[in-house]
Structures are given as C-alpha cells and as structure tokens.
C-alpha cells in the first residue's frame, strides 16, 4: 500500500514538472516570435518587401524606410518620392495602428511603391519582429510589408558633411526665383553639435540639439551683408521650424512635424 502511494505521488510530481516545462517552453517561444515597443521604435527600418514582392534598395535614388518616434508617437517614412508621416499607436499583443498625416506632394517617376506602402500602413493592425526583420500585418494574413533594421549610429554619422538646398516649402516664389545664383548650404559637425554654411548671401553658424532623428536648431549668427530678395529670410525662418530629419542615400530631408519642408543634397 505504501509503495502504491509512493508511486502515485511520484507520478503526480513528474506530471506537474512536465506541465511547467511546457509552459516555460511556450513562453520562451512566444517571446522569440513577438516584439516589444522598444524593439521597433526609434530605429530606422528599410523597406525590403511589399505585398510579398521584394523592394529595390533605392527608388528614385532614395532608400525606402520608416521610422517610429517613441517620444511623440509619430512616424516618418518615404518610399522614394514624398515624405510620409502621421501618428501611430501601440496596444497589447503587438497591436499597432497608423493614422495618416500630411505629406509632401511631389510627382516622381516611380510612385507604385509609395502608393502601396501608404495603403499597407493604413490597414496594418499588428506587427511581428524576428531578429532584425519587422513585419507589418493585418490579422493573420501574409505580411503587408517587411523591413530590415538599419543602425541609428550610421544615420547620425551620415549627417556630417556639407549639404546644399534644392527644395524649400512655404514660399510663393519658385525655388529658382528665391535662389537665382548661390543656393544655401549647411555643414554639420555632429560631435560638437555645431553647423555653419551660407544662406545664399551671408555666412552663418549655429548650434543644434540632436536625439535620434529629432533635431532642433538654435538661432544662427551671421554676417550682415545686405541681400536681395527673400531667399535668406525663407531659409533662416524655415530652419527654425525643423523638428526632425531623415537621410536617404545622398538626400537629407529636414522635417517639420510630418512634412519634409527642406531637401538638401550631399556635396
């Protein structure tokens, strides 16, 4: 009788141990296959696949990407033409929803990837992370879009150097009319948080604060030559509104909220 009781207790303990092992194994598997908000925010994600089809490294000379800003729950993206942006919200079980904001309205040669990405973002309701791959999904269907992580440090160091303005928003005067001769330039020294350049008329210097892909410029100090037209004023006033940036290849977008209001090319 004692032997029977002993074996019964021993069997129960084995059964409980097996159940616990299964639960731990299941939990570990779930943790591997799902992500957290820390895993996807404040990282640059390069678009590599859309609706099951691979996406080129560059479209119209720009790298397609998305960046989710944790501080204000806003996202910025491009698919080779316009700057896209808006807000996003995260929920339990890897839920995510995107709301579209304003974007630039340039017409480019290849727009199909931009159109497809915009549609995918608006119907996405969950995400998964596997290694350095982020997938945006709807329910349990095949991924709408897949992205590969790009190191933020590369993005920050890429800001260093000289950039020349080729687009500015907000002015009623055409770009060529604002800057008929010299175009504004800005040279970044990221380690010292300093920048200098020429406004198309006067030389200037300024400082800035940078955190990930957010950037804020302080008031510039410049020489005081008299300048014709409104080009310099437009450049300085727009620079003060900048809250973020993105780099795609040799193109730098300076962003106000969701909109790229200045575009510059690396020199």
Write up what this structure looks like:
The chain has six helices and 18 strands. The chain is of the alpha+beta class and 267 residues long. It folds into two domains: 37-150, Lipocalin; 154-266, Lipocalin. Strands 1, 2, 3, 4, 5, 6, 7, 8 and 9 form a nine-stranded antiparallel sheet that branches. Strands 10, 11, 12, 13, 14, 15, 16, 17 and 18 form a nine-stranded antiparallel sheet that branches. The protein is elongated, with a radius of gyration of 25 Å. The termini are far apart. Residues 1-35 have low confidence and may be disordered.
Structural class: alpha+beta
Give the topology string: H per helix, E per strand: HHEEEEEEHEEEHEHEEEEEHEEE
Unreliable parts = 1-35
Hey, roughly how much beta strand do the residues contain? 35-45%
**Mass-distribution shape:** elongated
**Any idea of the CATH class of the largest domain?**
Mainly Beta
Number of DSSP helical runs: 6
* Biggest sheet statistics: 9 strands, antiparallel
Radius of gyration in whole Å, from Cα?
A: 25 Å
| Average of pLDDT | 83
Residues in helices, as a percent range: 25-40%
Can you tell me the CATH topology of the largest domain? Answer: Lipocalin
Spell out the key features of this protein.
267 residues, alpha+beta, elongated, 2 domains, nine-stranded antiparallel sheet, disordered N terminus, Lipocalin, 25% helix, 6 helices
């Amino acid at each position: 009788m004692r032997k029977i009781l002993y074996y019964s207790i021993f069997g129960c303990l084995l059964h409980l141990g097996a159940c616990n092992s299964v639960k731990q194994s299941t939990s570990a598997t779930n943790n591997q296959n799902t992500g957290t908000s820390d895993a996807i925010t404040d990282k640059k994600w390069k678009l590599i696949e859309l609706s099951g089809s691979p996406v080129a490294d560059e479209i119209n000379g720009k790298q397609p990407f998305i960046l989710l800003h944790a501080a204000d729950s806003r996202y910025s993206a491009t698919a080779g033409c316009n700057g896209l942006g808006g807000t996003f919200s995260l929920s339990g079980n890897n839920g995510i929803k995107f709301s579209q904001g304003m974007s630039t309205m340039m017409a480019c040669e290849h727009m199909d990837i931009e159109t497809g990405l915009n549609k995918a973002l608006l119907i996405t309701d969950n995400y998964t992370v596997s290694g350095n791959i982020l997938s945006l999904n709807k329910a349990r269907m095949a991924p709408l879009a897949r992205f590969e992580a790009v190191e933020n440090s590369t993005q920050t160091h890429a800001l260093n150097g000289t950039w020349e303005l080729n687009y500015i928003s907000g002015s009623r005067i055409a770009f060529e009319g604002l800057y008929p001769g010299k175009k504004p330039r800005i040279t970044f020294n990221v380690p010292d948080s300093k920048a200098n350049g020429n406004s198309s008329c006067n030389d200037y210097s300024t400082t800035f604060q940078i955190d990930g892909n957010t950037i804020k410029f302080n008031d510039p100090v410049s020489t005081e030559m008299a300048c014709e037209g409104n080009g310099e004023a437009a450049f300085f006033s727009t620079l003060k509104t900048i809250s973020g940036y993105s780099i795609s290849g040799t193109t730098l977008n300076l962003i106000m909220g969701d909109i790229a209001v200045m575009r510059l090319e690396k020199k």
